[in-house]
Design a protein that fits this description.
This protein is α/β, with parallel strands linked by helices. Helices cover 41% and strands 27% of the residues. The protein has 13 helices and 17 strands. The strands form four sheets. Strands 2-1-3-8-7-6 form a six-stranded mixed beta sheet, with helices on both faces. A five-stranded mixed beta sheet has the order 14-13-15-16-17, sandwiched between helices. The protein has a four-stranded antiparallel beta sheet with strand order 10-11-9-12. Helix 7 crosses helix 8 and helix 9 packs parallel to helix 13. The longest helix has 20 residues. The protein is elongated and about 80 Å long. The chain starts with a strand and ends in an 8-residue tail after the last helix.
């Protein structure tokens, strides 16, 4: 089955918001084994949406749209689908009652314009929306199938999971169970991971794919089988191989964050952390602030000397390695924390990270220069990875 994803909305077309819906849908279709040949975006214009849908039906078996199902005059996806498939919009009383009940649950009265949301193409398959006011629907046309979903991400994801994926599984005639595992790696580039796993990446089942982020790369393993136990066994076999090859670079599975893993390591030790940072503009403090049970606080300044004054340290040169060491010790003392982590820079604007604890201070010079967003993400991520390895006793010999 060939698919095309169509997202509607002038705000998407103009780049005012990111198209996260298309990314989510692409992953869902991929996991179902459906080929995605095109992804398209179109503004809030009925004629242009209808033209795009007609084109999509010519080149795909399945078209999934998101957006344009609200109650306002610029929500025209319903009309466009009807135009593209030569179906008039007709009222669906059961959907109207569901929309009215949704408002009633919150003690509100439905506005007249919400009645538009219960007007759908004739003979479509309506899909109730228990988490919003925009019903979805499916049109099975002789040229192909159009699945139309709301644009609100939470509603779209709910309906995709609970209604559309089961529908597509029935259409595909498949009974396989999918098991997905994501291994989170850090401080190892995508190319190096690709070299280590290239033979696994050509596997048909399970499938192995990489997703790179600054300083981190995710390894996604998806196994299919007739039972969950069989799919789990396939994934577990590949996971063991990946872990053997990547070792300590894997810091977690699933949705865990690096800072969350570090917070748990600190909690297990009854330890706390304080941070002093210059070149990273407070990004480390922001990442750790979600874990107040272990994070004492942070100090941020434009440069090491300003940070030293903030910490009431003696006058001196608080740059490069000596500066990072002094700042790490200073912030640890100021907050009475188990560990003090400091990020300073040298004359080339290259980051130095230092971690002070009961056993002394460990330092690393990182390879990234500058204060732009990408450099800051890399620097904060590698600094946190240095701390993780130090807590696990793996820091010796590690370099970014």
């Amino acid at each position: 089955m060939r698919a095309e994803i169509v997202t509607t909305g002038t705000e998407l077309l103009l780049g005012q918001i990111d198209d996260t819906n298309a990314t989510y849908l692409a992953r869902q279709l991929r996991d179902l084994g459906i080929d995605i040949f095109f992804r398209s975006t179109v503004g809030d214009n009925q004629e242009r949406i209808a033209q795009l849908l007609e084109l999509a039906l010519d080149r795909a078996d399945l078209v999934i749209t998101t957006g344009g199902l609200g109650p306002t005059v610029d929500d025209v996806t319903r009309e466009a689908v009807g135009q593209a498939t030569n179906r008039p919009l007709v009222p669906y009383p059961d959907l109207l009652a569901q929309i009215e009940a949704f408002f009633a649950r919150f003690g509100s009265k439905m506005s007249d314009n919400n009645r538009r949301q219960a007007l759908l193409p004739q003979d479509c398959i309506p899909v109730e929306n228990p988490v919003g006011t925009a019903p979805a629907f499916i049109v099975e046309d002789e040229r192909g199938t159009i699945i139309t979903l709301p644009g609100v991400p939470s509603e779209m994801r709910y309906l995709m999971k609970h209604a559309i994926v089961p529908y597509l599984q029935r259409r595909l005639g498949r009974q396989e169970v999918l098991v997905t595992r994501i291994l989170r790696t850090v401080a190892v580039g995508e190319s190096r991971i690709d070299q280590a796993l290239s033979d696994l990446e050509v596997s048909y089942n399970p499938t192995v794919g990489l997703s790179a982020h600054p300083g981190q790369t995710d390894v996604r393993i998806v196994g299919k089988a007739s039972t969950e136990a069989q799919a789990e066994a396939l994934v577990a076999q590949f996971e063991a191989t990946v872990r053997e090859r990547l070792g300590a670079a894997i810091y977690a599975t699933g949705d865990a964050t690096l800072e969350g893993v570090i917070a748990e390591l600190l909690r297990q030790r009854g330890a706390t952390l304080a941070i002093a940072e210059t070149i990273t503009h407070g990004d480390l403090t922001r990442r750790l602030s979600a874990h107040p049970e272990v994070f004492c606080g942070g100090a941020v300044a434009a440069d090491g000397n300003a940070l030293a004054r903030l910490l009431s340290l003696e006058d001196g040169d608080y740059t490069a390695q000596p500066g990072a060491v002094a700042l790490a010790e200073g912030i640890r003392k100021a907050w009475q924390a188990s560990y003090g982590l400091a990020v300073a820079s040298d004359e080339d604007d290259r980051a130095w990270v230092a971690i002070a604890g009961d056993d002394g201070v460990d330092t690393r010079r990182l390879r990234f220069q500058g204060r732009d967003r990408r450099a800051r993400v890399w620097t904060t991520t590698l600094s946190l990875e240095f701390l993780r390895r130090l807590l696990l006793g793996l820091a010796d010999g590690w370099a970014d």
